[in-house]
Amino acid sequence: MTDHQPGRHMAAEIDQQPGIFDGLLARRDGIASVASAIAARKPRFVLLAARGSSDHAALYAKYLTEVLLELPAGLVSPSTTTLYGAQPDLRDVLVVSVSQSGGSPDLLEVTESARARGALTVAVTNTASSPLNAAAELSVDVGAGVEQAVAATKTYSATLLALYLLVDAIRGGNGSAAASLGDLARSTLDSSADAVAEAVQRYRFVDRVLTTGRGYSLPTALEAALKLAETSYLAARAYSGADLLHGPVAAVDAETAVLAVTSSGKGGDALHDVLDAVHGRGADVLAVGSASDKVSAALRIPVAETAEEVAPILEILPIQRLAHGLALARGGDPDNPRGLNKITRTR
Fold first, then answer.
1. Helix, strand or coil for residue 69?
2. Which parts of the sequence belong to the SIS domain (predicted)?
3. Could you say which of 154, 227, 294, 342 is catalytic?
4. pLDDT, averaged across the chain
């Protein structure tokens, strides 16, 4: 016998995020000291290593690196090291390994190998005592606390914020664009609740969902598809808005639900024509973001407006609530999705 209420851990962890943001912002000086060490080394290239939700956070950091630091950046393919034994020259390269647990064997091996080949290595994790932190030269603790639900919520958003603060500090910023995120997260969760509840009822019987975004919001679209797939077992697929028009749009019809992440800024502006095309094919569009009222959609979930580069930290909050609500409405337990464990060990 158990008294576990389905989804209670995930619900609680979603609600904890505003306070976690406040805590991270209060510890910005520690992140800035890591950034100073990185800036002093003057890396010429940035590589990001991650898996799962952390891979979406790494993609967000890739956008930050290329736009704010104007440095080339790429995502590591761990198997080139773990399976094929490749040994590239990584002098003057910054390797950032992103992992909630810090316990994935492949990320540990990638980090150790990169450090041995001359890279400056940084671990961004939620587990300060993890093997990954020990392997990296520098580390950033995202400080989200223990996460009980299998589906990552607070660790994902806290990782986004930690990565933003790190990149911003490397360029000499003071974190001002993120300063009010704790309060904005509270207002976003509160103001979006009714629209999320309406979306749960509207999409509870849908079988196929397509998610899309541009620019900084693409990682949010990818994370949205993952959350819907792992908690509600939906056939969810994410596309960049740019790629969507290059073929996949042909599969969009009146039976397709499209979750579009659209916030104020260049990425949201670039999504307008895409959503006009999708809407014209009869798809049921759910727009999420601070610019959701500016696009063609059947339903909109508002998000507080921020500088575009920090919008993903807020965009994901109502989507997590949506995934939680849909899982419960479809008879599942988002705390314990079938076939999944909190730590996935890959090589």
1. helix
2. 34-176, 196-337
3. 342
4. 93
